[in-house]
Amino acid sequence: xxxxxxxxxxxxxxxxxxxxxxxxxxxxxxxxxxxxxxxxxxxxxxxxxxxxxxxxxxxxxxxxxxxxxxxxxxxxxxxxxxxxxxxxxxxxxxxxxxxxxxxxx
Length: 105
Hints:
By secondary structure, this protein is an alpha+beta fold.
């Protein structure tokens, strides 16, 4: 089965919710280990246009907030459920979720 790298960017205030959603969806399991994740702390920049409904910030105004990128992995048959659970837990209208196939060895 093909392995998929899952990467989610979220404002730091919601890190725990996204990490829990990934774990509850079964991401990050390798052998006898579960809930394996790699976290990168940084900043997220965004500017909602006039049609957006931003969770934070204001329309037509550039904003920069503390954020984290949470990286983990899953198998192809888990992707749809993982994306669904992350979207339910994510505060943003348009969550940044990256999915990339890779060789796990």
